[in-house]
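Task: sequence design from structure.
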């Protein structure tokens, strides 16, 4: 019995030591958390006063072993202030592609969006992102999107005007708008968002509205039109739920275009496609009642 009692006391003492140690860690965490807890502004990037000072990682002796201070100087850089506007702009999209060349296949799956944007491509703005600032006229691989053996509800907004999107429907049902964005439309969307959400915090940081917009919309001119090149096989249908613009549309025998219930479609082909317009200009195009199987360019479909 004495031997069992001694073992029990040992367990009690060990448990007590563990509890005391845990309490000590909690006390240290509470008193000094700001020195070692993760927070939104990394101490390796942001130095005094929350001002970004470049990229630097120190070893245990305080010596830098990664130092990009001389490569990127983010002091007073409007790109820092532009970040949350950019995130707000793309918020809610189910799938967002940012200045990248991709192969995307949606095959018999479900896609949900918080704001009816199923797929959105956008233009990146910071110099450290891959593939942005595409020279005017240079054709990149672009975004190849295949929707197969499924129903997809939501808009497809191709706002990355520097790349083409090849959109293929294979035994698929699409309900939504498909929009080929332009440079002017991108800038207008960004300017509208910044105007709506401009805050005193931006003013306090020394950023100007003009600098923020300039960081996000750095192309004053971009003439080449890439747009969405869409194709539908004979087992696919598209309910055009919003005004749509396509660089080209290829329809196989049996492919169906439909208007939403209670609406009708106005279809134009050979429309003018200009990056200085907010939307492809249908006024110079040719209106048609229906689209027979074949290939068309400069397509604008309006929902009435």
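Answer:
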């Amino acid at each position: 019995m004495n031997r069992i009692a001694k073992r029990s006391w040992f367990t009690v003492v060990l448990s007590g030591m563990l509890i005391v140690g845990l309490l000590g860690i909690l006390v240290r965490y509470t008193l000094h958390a700001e020195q070692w807890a993760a927070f939104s502004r990394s101490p390796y990037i942001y130095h005094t006063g929350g001002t970004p000072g470049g990229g630097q990682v120190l070893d245990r002796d305080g010596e830098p072993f990664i130092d990009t201070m001389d490569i990127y100087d983010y002091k007073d850089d409007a790109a820092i202030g532009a970040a949350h506007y950019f995130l707000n702009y793309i918020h809610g999209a189910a799938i967002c592609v940012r200045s990248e060349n991709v192969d995307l296949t949606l095959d018999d799956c479900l896609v949900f969006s918080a704001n009816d944007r199923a797929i959105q491509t956008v233009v990146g703005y910071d110099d450290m992102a891959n593939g942005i600032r595409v020279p005017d006229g240079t054709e990149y691989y672009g975004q190849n999107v295949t929707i197969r053996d499924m129903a997809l509800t939501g808009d497809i907004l191709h706002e990355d005007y520097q790349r083409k999107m090849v959109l293929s429907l294979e035994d698929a049902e699409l309900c939504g708008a498909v929009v080929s964005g332009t440079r002017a439309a991108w800038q207008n969307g960004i300017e509208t968002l910044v105007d709506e959400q401009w805050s005193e915090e931006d003013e306090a940081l020394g950023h100007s509205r003009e600098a923020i917009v300039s960081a996000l919309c750095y192309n004053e001119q971009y003439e080449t039109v890439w747009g969405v090149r869409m194709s539908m096989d004979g087992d696919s249908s598209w309910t055009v739920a919003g005004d749509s613009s396509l660089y080209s549309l290829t329809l196989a025998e049996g492919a169906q275009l439909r208007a939403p219930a209670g609406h009708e479609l106005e279809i134009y082909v050979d429309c003018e496609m200009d990056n200085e317009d907010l939307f492809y200009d249908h006024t110079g195009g040719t209106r048609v009642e229906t689209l027979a199987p074949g290939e068309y360019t400069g397509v604008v479909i309006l929902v009435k």
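The longest helix spans residues 2-36.
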